[in-house]
Amino acid sequence: MRPGGALDVVQLAAGVVLAGAVLALWRKDLRALISVLSLQGAALATLAGVLAAHDGDVGLGVVAGVVLVAKGLVIPGLLARVVRADPGSRETAPLVNVPASLVTAAVLVVLSYLVAGRLTALFPDPLTRLAPLGLATVLVGFFVLVTRRKAVSQIVGLLLIDNGLALTAFLLTAGVPLLVELGASLDVLLVVVVLQVLATTMRARFGHVDLDQLRELHD
Amino acid sequence: MSATAYLIGLGAAGAAALLGALLPARRRLFGAGVLSAAGCLAALVGAGQVLVSGHPFSVHTAEVLPLTGVDLTLDPLGALFVAVTAIVGLAASCYAVGYGAHGAPSRTATAMLPAFLATVLLVPAAASVATFMIAWELMALTSLLALLAEHRRRPETRDAAQWYAAMTHVGAAAILLGLVLLATHADSQSFAIIAEHRRQLSVPLASVVFVLTLVGFASKAGAVPLHVWLPRAHPEAPSPVSALMSGTMVNLGVYGILRVGEDLLGGGVLWWWLLVAALGVASAFFGALHAAASTDLKRLLAYSTVDNVGLVLIGVGAAGALAAGGERGLAGLVLLAALFHLVNHALFKGSLFLGAGAVQHAAGTRDLDALGGLARQMPATAVCFGIGALAISALPGLNGFASEWLLLQGLLHGFASHSAVTEAALLAGVAALAITGGLTATAFVKALGVGFLGQPRSEGARTAHEVRPSMLAGMALLAAGCVVLGVVPGVVLAVLGRAASAGLAGGAPKALRPGLGLDLTSLHGAIEPALVVVGLLVALVVAWGALRLVPRPAELRRARRAEAWGCGRELQTARMEITATSFAEPLQRVFADVLRPDHDLEVSHAAESRYFPGAISFHQRVDDAVERLVYQPVIAAVGWWGRLARRVPNGSVHRYLAFGFAALVLVLVVLA
Predict the structure, then answer these.
(1) pLDDT at B18 > cutoff 80
(2) Spatial separation of the C-alpha atoms in residues B125 and B564, rounded to whole Å
(3) Where are the domains of chain B?
(4) How many whole angstroms separate alpha carbon A63 and alpha carbon A66?
(5) SS3 B243
(6) What are the Cα distances from residue B234, in Å, to B94, B186, B305, B347, B385?
(7) Does A2 touch chain B (CB under 8 A)?
């Protein structure tokens, strides 16, 4: 892809995905986390759509539509329902506090640039140079998963990982086949539904959705 | 021909296992018993032909195991072990038909006895590393399942099975490591090719292989300090399985040492065999001592197995040491004696374990302190057990005497050898033989006297009854073997000589002249047990006749008859009798440093005055010193490590996720 308007959009969209992940570390309000997710979904869909328009690939265009619907609307919508059931809930006390999390995210981004250097060296191209962003999103998502207590934050972490993987896939492959993207999106949708049920049940049973309190269940 | 008979035997034993698993409950025992007995007979014919002709046979099939195929070769050494297994297996199969018939015969228990038997028949014929290890592990597995047959009724069985499983796994791992080293060196896993390449093997590597395999084989043989599973597992197994374990499975440990040390490694260096002999001396002494102190009949027999395996290992070690010093004739004689003792041990220990099973069946307990007077209710069992007990105590006229005499002759003549170290080892062997002779006699006087003579000490012993004919047939077969080999040991010497010659690298000259008795060729020494027996019988008849002929004084004619071990008292109750514990007490006092008995004396007082005791209860436990000093610290350390590891997964989802995250980041850092 030659430098130009399309590439700028792609670069911006990829940057938004990573920025969203970092934003998810910063904000404690669960509703804000969900907005971050829809923002990421929209960015991913834009990226896929621009790539499809540039290559004239109809399949990728359909994928962009699926991403927009699934990641941009349906999944955040489902999560918003969980949060609405418990309006005042915030990620009050993460296992690692916000400043330390942001520093860690910076370290993870550097690490992913170091690792992905080998990948980009295989096929230097403006698109593959963006691959570290995807990898960094995956790592930050994993970090959210490890350090945040609320069930909704955990789902958000998982979705961040998925978005990071999708971003990497869009950037490194010559277009994700429709079937694969459909399968992946449906899987993620299913996971979200299951976790939504789990969170609802947890609140009904224990009166909170703090996963860290669940350690007595291990035997 | 011999190959066909042997394979038919294996097949029949395998089919018996299938029958035991598939037939309906009523026919199961009989079908499996008859078929496995037939299999034993066929295997005996096959092995007998190899032993008599001296020509080994080989079978190879590529169909059974992918990649490696199955290699079977039966040479005279292996054939001896197959023949012994077949004889004990025949008796155990007969016995099992009656043994299982009392309770509901479980499917697993009925099937596992012939399956175990088939694997024991298979191991000595294995002629490649893969075949050997598979047969060896199958033997461990089937014996473990056979051992677990009564686990529902007795929780101790589970404990015993855990010990056995752990020890046999460690042993198998050591053997596998040793054999794989050999196979890698020879670039082939066939035993024949490994044996051809033995000259290129460096001594340190060969020593590593020998020590590794020795660990595995000694643990199977039950040599001290790897014996700890044996006094637990053998008593807890059903009696036919105990007989097979003690009479045949432990032998394969000795077989393995000979096969690897002499055949595959070519005899090696002196210290290997001194190590084997040292294990033998330790086992003989330790086993005999614990047997003398045990009050559980089957535990006594199990420790006595440790003792006898020790005697065989003394012989094997001495033979290897003499052969390494170049004295082939003497080495052949000592190895022959060791193998003879192994055969005899299988016969008398088989008969004793089957007898102990009959006692347990009839009286409901195997605690000697609760038995007594069984000779009256179970005369046939008492005779079979008595023959076994006299044979194991090495009394002339029975087979234990013949082999121990031969072993002693071999060891004593070895004093003329040139190496001072070997002489010292032989001296230790002679000393061990002497002391275990005395201790074994004590143990079996106790078993026979307390168990079968005197008055019954419990309701179970009072109401005991003779067992079924099929069980008696099994015991009688082995007891008859003890008598035959004791009176005319010469009949098996040619066969044993061939096996001993095959067991030494480079062979051995004939050590004994053909005949009915024992007559050494190159050395001075001969004995004719048949004449000894005839002489003893004549002396008995003469003494008895003389007593009848000579008129006795009147007061002697009014002599009152009391039962044996009843101390001739007018009023004798069971509580006045000597018990097994009290019988062993003096010995325990002498060897208190080794045995360290744990006493527990509780005296309760009468309510009125503290000067009058109400009841006194006395408990005593004799722990295995090796287990306490060597194994318990290891188990404690493993347990500590396990508890430490349990702290890591504390149930927190975040901690588990953090492990995954840390691992991912670590991999990325390494990659970057």
Answers:
(1) yes
(2) 48
(3) 270-344+393-455+487-548+574-590, 596-623, 626-671
(4) 5
(5) helix
(6) 19, 38, 9, 16, 17
(7) no
- B36/B12 Cα distance (integer angstroms): 6
Q: Show the CA angle centred on residue B166, arms to residues B302 and B118, nearest 5°.
A: 65
d(CA A185, CA A169): 13
* Spatial CB neighbours of B307, under 8 Å, sequence gap ≥ 6: B283, B284, B285, B286, B287, B288, B291, B436, B439, B440
Q: B125: helix, coil or strand?
A: helix
pLDDT at A184: 78
pLDDT digits (tens, 9 = 90+) for B190-244: 999 999 888 888 999 999 999 999 999 999 999 988 999 999 999 999 999 999 9
Q: Which of B647, B648, B652 to mutate to test the interface with A (most CBs of A within 10 A)?
A: B652
> Considering only B188-197, B264-273, B613-622, B623-632, which range has the smallest mean pLDDT?
B613-622
CA distances from A192 to A21, A162, A183, A186 (A): 18, 12, 14, 10
What percent of chain B stands above pLDDT 90?
A: 55
User: Is residue B560 very low, low, confident or very high in pLDDT (cuts 50, 70, 90)?
Assistant: confident
| Both structure tokens of B104 | 């509901």
pLDDT for A219 equals: 42
Which of B653, B661, B669 has its CB closest to that of A214? B653
Using CA atoms, how far apart are residues B314 and B342, in angstroms rounded to an integer? 12
What band does A218 get if pLDDT is binned at 50, 70 and 90? very low
Q: How many CB atoms lie within 10 A of CB B74?
A: 27
Residues 6+ apart with CB under 8 A from B621: B597, B598, B600
Answer whether B477's CB lies under 8 Å from B394's CB.
no
| Tokens, residue A180 | 């694969």
Enumerate the domain spans of chain A.
5-218
Size of interface A-B (CB pairs under 8 A): 47
CB-CB under 8 Å, A215 with B661? no
Chain-chain contact of A218 with B649 (C-beta, under 8 angstroms): yes
What is B374-404 written as a DSSP string?
A: HHHH-HHHHHHHHHHHHHHTT-TTSHHHHHH
Pairwise CA distance, residues B632 & B428, whole Å: 29
Question: Which of A95, A96, A138, A146 is the best residue to mutate to test the B interface, defined by the most B CB atoms within 10 Å of its own CB?
Answer: A146
- In this complex, is the C-beta atom of A122 within 8 Å of any C-beta atom belonging to chain B? no
- The residue of chain B with its CA nearest to that of A142 is B661
In this complex, which of A95, A114, A143 lies closest to B672 when CB atoms are compared? A114
Q: With contact defined as beta carbons under 8 Å apart, do B306 and B222 qualify? A: yes
Report which residue type is found at A109. Answer: V
Structure tokens at B528: 């004719």
Instruction: Kindly tell me if the per-residue pLDDT of B334 is higher than 70.
Output: yes
Q: What are the angstrom distances between the C-alpha of A43 and each of A53, A55, A144, A145?
A: 15, 18, 20, 22
Length of chain A measured in residues: 219
Q: Token pair for residue B581?
A: 């514990």
How many helical (H) and strand (E) elements, i.e. helices and strands, does chain B have? 28, 6
Q: In angstroms, rounded to a whole number, what is the distance separating the alpha carbons of residues A24 and A32? A: 8
H or E element, residue B300 = helix B297-324
Cβ separation of B657 and A146 shorter than 8 Å?
yes
First and final C-alpha spacing in chain B: 68
Complex-level ipTM: 0.83
- Determine, for residues A145 and B661 on separate chains, whether the beta-carbon distance falls below 8 Å: yes
The dihedral formed by the CA atoms of B464, B470, B474 and B477, expressed in degrees to the nearest 10: 110
Side-chain half-sphere CA neighbours of B242 within 13 A: 34
Q: Cβ(A161)–Cβ(A41) under 8 Å?
A: no
